[in-house]
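thought: fold this chain, then report.
action: predict
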Amino acid sequence: MNREDVRIVFGKKSSIDSASNVMKYYKSIGFKVPNGKRSESLTNTQLRNFLAITSSIYNIVMSQGPEAVRDKLLYFKIHLIYQAGRNVAVKDFVELSKLPAATEKVLSKLDDDDAKEYVIRLCRYMEALVAYFKYYGGKD
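observation:
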């Protein structure tokens, strides 16, 4: 699978398929991203750190509503960017998965009637990314 073949759509049904596509690509390259003469691996720990944040976001949106997660969503986006700056494999993953753009879309919808649905969709997308990572053989 080529990187160009990966399609990301952040819709009601398509975000789970998008997560599968992302991880199929990583499986095809052995979960390793070139970095000069060596390569860096995408790990379960890195992904689970992102999942921990989205799990917290999910819990907050379910108990307090979508407006209560604005700061946590902003933190998630910044955390993605920071971790991407630290590791080439994470940077590649963040860019390919389009998580910052998806988070930005959710932030722009927080005042809409269906805001809660968008937040939940982002959280489910992150869960699916981790699940497919494990399914396709990703390791720590």
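thought: worth noting. The chain has a mean pLDDT of 92.
final: tokens above.
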